[in-house]
Amino acid sequence: MLRCEAEVFRPRTLNDALQMRADMPDATVLAGGTDVMVYLEAGVLKPTRILDLWGCQGLRGLGFADGSQVYGAGLTCTDVLQSVQAHPLLRDAAATVGAVQIQNRATLGGNICNGSPAGDTLPVWLALNAEFELASVRGFRRVPAATFWRGYKQMDLQPDELLVSIHVPAVTGNSHFRKVGTRMAQAISKVIFAGRSVAGREARLAFGAVGPTPMRCAAAEEALVAGAPVDEVVRLLEEEIVPIDDVRSTALYRRKVAGRIVRRWLESLPRG
Questions:
Q1: H helices of 166-250, where?
Q2: What number does CATH give the domain 7-52?
Q3: Spatial separation of the C-alpha atoms in residues 72 and 63, rounded to whole Å
Q4: pLDDT exceeds 80 at position 184
Q5: Which of helix, strand or coil describes residue 236?
Q6: Does domain 174-268 match CATH 3.30.390.50?
Q7: Cβ contacts of residue 22 below 8 Å, gap of 6+?
Q8: Distance (Å, rounded) from C-alpha 33 to C-alpha 192?
Q9: What is the DSSP letter of 107?
Q10: Is the pTM of this model over 0.85?
Q11: At residue 24, what are phi and psi to the nearest 5 degrees?
Q12: Which of 129, 130, 131, 225 could be a cystine partner for 142, CB 3.0 to 4.6 Å?
């Protein structure tokens, strides 16, 4: 039976949450709790204070501002799946997160700030050129998704800051999401891919679970934009990713599967 002696603080407004964060930078932040509860049960997390954002107002909106789509960090996967406004890449990713019970609680901000390279939504933000809005009592700042994850579970997030929203600029092109796990559902990722391509102009090839952080394959993207053959694009991305052997898979498997996912997607795109 789960037992936790931590004192729990439940702010109702963002201002309250930011002040509590400033006063308690050591507190464990709980968004939906789908990861935190697992860590508590396993005994690897033993907090003395928890900042519970589940009931905090203003974190679950989805709208538009300054030409960008803005996702509240408190939106759940179920919120995304039920929204006709959410980008198809994000909807596809949200559908792969656990079972319905997990989707009802798992939040976008929690997935991002857990910092695991196997987080299902993380490559999507790279493919969509997203920026993360971070807030503290000192003010607000935006960090590109491309520079937010600095290492395994290391992020550009100060102790007194909270992620409050994700900004996605208007994007075009063909897109594709694919998650590979041990099972078709309720599996931790072995390889995650989110791609977007505008023929001859722009390409985004983003992966998760193939390195210490979610990553883009810059050389492969450049080759794709330049019109290189699919074989060359695949060769470059297989060189760029840095998978490891672990309990879920091998580096060789991840590298080969990553290449095949991209190959099949590119070969399915209209020519010309």
A1: 218-225, 230-240
A2: 3.30.43.10
A3: 9
A4: no
A5: helix
A6: yes
A7: 136, 137, 160
A8: 22
A9: B
A10: yes
A11: -130, 65
A12: 131
Structure token digits, residue 9: 């603080």
Quote the strand ranges of 145-266, DSSP E. Answer: 149-151, 154-155, 162-169, 174-180, 191-198, 202-208, 215-216
The domains of the chain are located at 7-52, 62-169, 174-268
Token couple for 19: 């002040």
Instruction: Record the tokens describing residue 213, joined without a space.
Output: 């952080």
pLDDT digits (tens, 9 = 90+) for 11-24: 999 999 999 999 99
The answer on pLDDT for 122 being more than 60 is yes
Of 204, 150, 135, 163, whose CA–CA distance to 71 is shortest? 163
State the pLDDT confidence band at 248, using cuts at 50, 70 and 90. confident
Which class does domain 62-169 fall in?
A: alpha beta
In this structure, are residues 230 and 263 in contact, taking their beta carbons and an 8 Å threshold?
yes
Q: End-to-end CA distance of the chain, in Å?
A: 60
Paired tokens of 3:
């037992």
Q: Are strands 28-30 and 49-52 parallel, antiparallel or unpaired?
A: parallel
> Any idea what the Cα angle at residue 78 is, between residues 30 and 184, rounded to 5°?
100
Report how far apart, in Å, the C-alpha atoms of 197 and of each of 2, 69, 174, 200, 225 are: 46, 19, 5, 9, 8
* CA–CA dist 157, 110 (Å, integer): 13
Cross-strand pairs, 70: 63, 167
d(CA 243, CA 210): 4
The three-class DSSP label of residue 150 is strand
Q: Who's near 250: CB < 8 A, 6+ residues apart?
A: none
Residue 98: pLDDT band by 50, 70, 90 thresholds? confident
H-state helical runs in 100-167: 100-105, 108-114, 122-127, 145-148
